[in-house]
Structures are given as C-alpha cells and as structure tokens.
Amino acid sequence: MTNRWLDRAKSAQTRLRERRTPLTDDLALVEDPNAAPARVTELDETTWLVERGERRRVVPLGAPDLGTTLLTTGRKVRRLKPSHLYEKALLDHACQGHLVWLLTRLKIDVVLDVGANRGQYARGLRAAGYEGRIISFEPVPATLDRLREVSRDDPLWDVVPYALGREDGEAEIHVNDTLSSMLDASEFGVEWKESMGRAPTTTIQVRRLDGVLAEVLDGVTGADGAAPRLYLKLDTQGFDLEAFAGLGDRVSDVLGMQSEVACLPIYEGMPGMSEALETYTAAGFSLTAMFPVSRHVPTMRVIEFDAFLVRDPDPEHPDRHP
Predict the structure, then answer these.
(1) pLDDT of residue 10
(2) What separation in angstroms does the CA of 167 have from each of 19, 48, 55, 66, 112?
(3) Do the bridges between strand 254-262 and strand 230-234 make them parallel or antiparallel, or are there none, so unpaired?
(4) 115: left (phi over 0), alpha (psi -120 to 50) or beta
(5) How far apart are CA 122 and CA 140, in angstroms?
(6) For 43, which of 84, 181, 195, 276 is 20 to 30 Å away at the CA?
(7) Which backbone phi and psi does 175 adopt, to 5 degrees?
(8) pLDDT band at residue 3 under the 50/70/90 scheme
(9) What percent of the chain shows pLDDT beyond 70?
(10) Which of 270, 254, 172 is nearest to 210 (CA)?
(11) Is the pLDDT score of 150 beyond 80?
(12) Helices marked H in 36-139 — which ranges?
C-alpha cells in the first residue's frame, strides 16, 4: 500500500472513527471499531489471512517446501452431520492426487473408464489436467444418453455402449442411479441403501474387453507412434473381476489400474477384498494405495476401498516403473 493510500486510510479513520493497524512499513489494516474485531494470521512472508467472525484454522500439510495449507472453520467441521464427511473430503482429495501422480508417472495416454455412469470420473480427470484419450463404457440406456451428452464436445472422449464381462452376450442389470449392478442387492446392501432393493431391471449388451480393444483403439497411437499406454478403471458394482477376466492376454497391455474392492458385500455373490487383490496380484499387479469409497456410519466400518495398482516391473529392470 503506497503512502497516498495510507493518507486516504487516515482520512477515513478520522471521518468514520476507524483505526489503522500497521502490518508492514507500507501495508495497513483499517477496521471499524463498531464491527466484530478482525484477526490477522500470517500465512507466509507476503500473505495474511484477515477475518471477521468465526475463526479459521490454518494447518500446514506436509513439509514446508510442499507449500500446501489447509484452511478450515473448526466449529462448522465439528457440526458436520454425518461427521465423517470432513474425513471423506480430505481422502477424496488425496485419492485424486494419487491418481494424477500415477497417470503422470506411467505416461498414460488412454484411460479405459469401465462403469462410466454419467461421466463423473472422466470429468474429474479433465478437471485434474489429464489431456489424453478417455474411453468410457456405460450400458444403461438412459445413463448412456446423458454420458454422450456431456462428452459430446470432447474429441478425445469416446463412449462405448457395453458392459464388460467374462463372456459376450446379454444380461439383466438393476438400474439404480450410481449403483446399477448385474448382481442382486444383498441384505446388508438394502439395509445400507433401501433403494437398492427396488431397482428395476433392463437388458444390456456384455462384451469381453479383449474383443473390444481392437475396435476402440483402432487408429489410436501413443507418443511418437508407439502403442498406447493404458490405464484401466473398474467401477462395476460388484462385477470388477468379471470385467477384468475379459481382458484375457491383453492384461499385459495395462500399465496401471484401479478397482473398487469390497469389505462389506452390498451385492450377493460379489468377491471380497482378499479375492480381488489376489486376482490382481496373480495377474502381475502390485498395490500403490487404497482409499475408502463408502462407509457404514453406524458401525464405522469401510464398505469399499478404491485400490490403485501398477504392473510389476520387468525382472531385468526392477528399479523402473513400467
């Protein structure tokens, strides 16, 4: 703030009975004594947080050179109902950051978005800065129409109208907003979310992923004309292992992946977390992280985790990622 502006502030102080608090040699805080007092928190050498009313909490995250700070209103956080939403927001942020790190480290240029729903995952990728190709699979007709609408203006976002499974054919799917599944809801699932017990069904097309890849990757190349570097995202409401089985020998083309793995089964016959992780490990993948997706709040138990995995390194170069 220049001396000219300080002179104006002094004049305003005289007229309005305000007071001036010097912050530095050339910066001052002007405040109304009739209002709630302002509080000043120095965030770094050039930035202050000036606030009235409820106090915010400023918490550095990680090492100082990371430059990341969390700003919260403590009372509002404590009033959240259910209270785990604050934790979930932080974990969702960390989860998205981990995903971006994987895509960057693996130099991914094609993401296979299996179980795309209305395009939430793909839109999140774009918001996070991913500029490569996205191929979204969504079989439910009404949801498919919405997905095509939101992807229409993105030339690197393709939409495929199939579910993925172990065999080609047709199947019945229970249609329930973001929880559409080819499996029946379990007793626990209905208790957790009542609408799962009354979802209508519709017939959809199911394809093996190894048979579809040649179609969806036709003409698609990676950097410098190389084969595209693939990342597989699975979110099929209990059907992830079936979709994964349809990769067949093409599994070796996938460099990284993520899958929802279940601790508490919300569908009948869905594989548990141990079975899912053993299957992915046997196919040559190793965990990089796991983040809670949903929680049974009354008992505090995690229902599902998002598991992130990368292909194991070449034995000849064990210190390199794929």
Answers:
(1) 53
(2) 76, 60, 58, 48, 18
(3) parallel
(4) left
(5) 17
(6) 84
(7) -95, 115
(8) low
(9) 85
(10) 254
(11) yes
(12) 74-79, 84-105, 120-127
